[in-house]
Design goal:
Blueprint lengths: L3 E12 L2 E7 L11 E8 L2 E8 L8 E7 L6 H5 L6 E8 L9 E7 L3 H13 L3 E7 L6 H9 L3 E4 L3 H7 L5 E6 L1 H15 L6 E4 L2
Parallel strand pairs: 7-8, 7-10, 8-9, 10-11
Antiparallel strand pairs: 1-2, 1-6, 2-5, 3-4, 3-6
Helix pairs in contact: 4-5
This protein binds flavin-adenine dinucleotide.
The site of flavin-adenine dinucleotide has 20 residues, from β4, β5 and α1.
Length: 206
């Protein structure tokens, strides 16, 4: 989709320094959970663009992204109070997204929990199996993680990523979402366990 103006319909706190942002879905927009958008706006006269991954299970009247707020950042602190504002979106982009896999293992660090819950909800709705291993000092989206657990997903919140990667890999499509440090840790753990993480779907937040 070409750059398109849309409205920030809602901004909700979903845990420490993290918000879920609902954007009105532009006409004709479609995407799969795990794909990402480019979001642009003007802050103090300066054009700012950042990428954010979908955290909603499907495209409805709104689409959701989940943003970890760095208080020193440019776009994050702005978006916290941007309900009702206009932004430009482009996309979707990326190849690390859910494609109706029947058994998924999602490794999520920090705001990587956004695509984890989006894919998890969609996978369960499709009758598929899903395991989420989520690492964060202060876990967010706890309501949605707990609902996923109640509905049959395996949800592990841990700081021992490697132990859980070792236990869950065979026959599963692996997804990895998070910032560089987490992605490196996850790929190292996968390599140790299975020797070859090349078939994992990986999105590095930078
Ligand atoms: C494919 C992709 C998907 C992504 N998906 C998500 C997602 O779903 N959720 C999410 O939260 N993030 C995601 N990100 C990261 C996101 O795009 C932003 O990088 C992040 O939100 C920080 O943006 P910001 O404008 O708030 O901070 P920035 O302004 O980019 O700052 C980040 C840090 O850099 C420091 N910094 C900035 N400018 C300077 C400077 N001039 N000198 C020194 N230090 C500086 C700041 O102090 C701050 O600590 C994704 C990134 C990519 C590439």
């Amino acid at each position: 989709m070409e750059p398109t103006q849309t409205t920030i319909a809602a901004v909700r706190e979903v845990g420490a320094d993290t918000v879920a942002v609902d954007l009105e879905t532009p006409d004709g927009f479609d995407a799969q959970p795990g794909q990402f958008l480019k979001l642009s706006t003007t802050i103090d006269g300066e054009h700012v663009s950042r990428f954010y991954t979908l955290s909603s299970p499907e495209v409805g009247e709104t689409i959701e992204i989940t943003i970890g707020i760095d208080p020193e950042g440019e776009l994050g602190p702005w978006i916290e109070s941007a309900e009702g504002e206009s932004v430009t979106v482009e996309g979707p982009y990326g190849s690390a997204y859910y494609e109706n896999e029947d058994d998924s293992l999602i490794l999520a660090g920090g705001p990587g929990v956004g695509p984890a819950v989006g894919i998890g909800e969609r996978a369960l709705a499709d009758g598929n199996e899903v395991t989420i291993v989520y690492c964060d000092d202060e876990p967010v989206h706890e309501d949605r993680l707990s609902a996923l657990k109640d509905e049959g997903a395996t949800v592990i919140v841990t700081d021992e990523l490697a132990d859980h990667v070792a236990s869950y890999y065979e026959g599963q499509q692996v997804f990895v979402y998070g910032f560089q440090e987490f992605v490196t840790e996850a790929l190292d753990a996968l390599e140790e366990t299975r020797g070859d993480p090349d078939d994992a779907k990986v999105e590095n937040f930078g």
